Amino acid sequence: MLKIDLHIHTVASGHAHNTILEYMNQAKKLKMKAIGISDHGPNVADAIISELYFRTLRQIPRKIGGLLIFKGIEANIINENGDIDISDGTIESLDYVMANFHKNTDYQDRGKKLNTEVILKTIKSGKVNIISHPFLTKSFNIDIKRMSEEACKNNVLLELNLYYLSKSKNNPDIIPNIKIMVDVVKQYKKKFIIGSDAHNIWELADDSSLKAIKKQIGLTDNLIINNYPQELFKLLKIS
């Protein structure tokens, strides 16, 4: 069970099922240390919110009953320049930014070579803290090794996404891709971040899918930044 989970979606994402308050209450029941609100950016087709929603998240208290609340976004890469779908002003109002390619946005698959160049631009932009579900290459193929190396060089965290890990048996690329990522992260002496990608409160913090494959992918607890809260908060510049 995760004590820190920064990848959760509320009803504002348009395809999730619980409110911020319901997630907070569930996190308290689970005795979690921190959660992060990370709804999809407005460029995805089923988002029901505008950029203003993300700016107003700052009105939510930082700490409620011992639970830390961080405000983020899972942004969408929207063009060949590697731009994401929120402004610099909104980025400054948030605690962290996750990003990757997503279906039903302005960015359409350009093939492995160009997709790789685009995501490298996103990583090097300095506007993104976490690459969400980077091992998914079925819809947007990329060079996993180059992407992982660039992320490590730029102190951008690579996410091990628990939702998609639970579906790894149906996607034969996931485990080999993660193994490449693990090798690179170890080489650069960096860490992964674990996120549930919860779309309801029952998925929050559930890391059972990771436990089932940790040995297979060569992941050890010292490679998981969720286990080192102060290091994580310092990296994200969260006070």
From TrEMBL:
Domain Polymerase/histidinol phosphatase N-terminal: residue ranges: 4-79
- GO molecular-function terms, A-Z: phosphoric ester hydrolase activity; zinc ion binding
- The domain of life for this entry's organism is Bacteria
* GO CC annotation terms, alphabetical: cytosol
Cross-referenced InterPro entries: PHP_dom, PHP_phosphatase, Pol/His_phosphatase_N, Pol/histidinol_Pase-like
Q: Which GO terms describe its biological process?
A: bacterial-type flagellum-dependent swarming motility
Instruction: Extract the SUPFAM superfamilies matched here.
Output: PHP domain-like (SSF89550)
PANTHER family assigned to the protein according to its UniProt record, in alphabetical order: PHOSPHATASE YCDX-RELATED
Q: Know the name of this protein?
A: Polymerase/histidinol phosphatase N-terminal domain-containing protein
> Which source organism does the UniProt entry give?
Candidatus Falkowbacteria bacterium CG1_02_41_21
